[in-house]
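Handout, section B. The chain below has 233 residues.
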Amino acid sequence: MFTVDFHELDLRPGFRVLDAGCGTGRHLRALVKIAGLEVVGVDARSKEVDEALKGLKETPDVLCDDYFVTCADITRLPFPDEHFDCVICSEVLEHIPDHETAAKELVRVLKPKGSLVVSVPRYFSERVCWMISSDYSNDEGGHIRIYRKKKLHKMLTGQGMSCWKINYKHALHAPYWWLKCLVGIKNEENIFVRMYHKFLVWDLFSKPKTVRILEEALNPLIGKSIVFYMRKG
């Protein structure tokens, strides 16, 4: 399940791409299938880094041998200024107490005219989760803030970024999380949660055209994530 649409980015051979807060590497596994890239992933949790590396080794049809994944704090990235042609930060800032410093770091390591893609949970779908369940936000490692579109846009453009596109993703995942909030965030045995999860997995691998059309139609209304595509300078 990719939140970033890579066809929106002009990724060329020789480009350095950073996935800041890469988690278990879902976007990394897509990036290494683009020929000629230098791909770097960082995450604060060593367990996630280990899983990302394992997943990359098992990824078929890899066209990029130049990849590197390591532990790092997004508020203190271990890279020089203007080092990357593209920086991705997907579903991360809502977890970071000092999110403004993190945003500054993302911009600092990005080359002039480079692309920055930032996604966070969308206000509406997130607010519903917070209203239904206190555990959703209070759980360890959970979301500590809800972004309004204008606020995040202002924070990023205040760092010298210009926004050229805003997209919405994963509308079919919003009801899944509302359901989990209703029955208990960690209640994976609930029959409705299990059935919905099975449907999402089927959709992920089968990609039926009718479901894809449905989700694209629903994304502007109840998309789980909002995605900012930005350029430096």
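Note. Strands lie at 16-20, 38-43, 67-71, 84-90, 110-121, 161-169, 225-232. Compare this with the example in section A.
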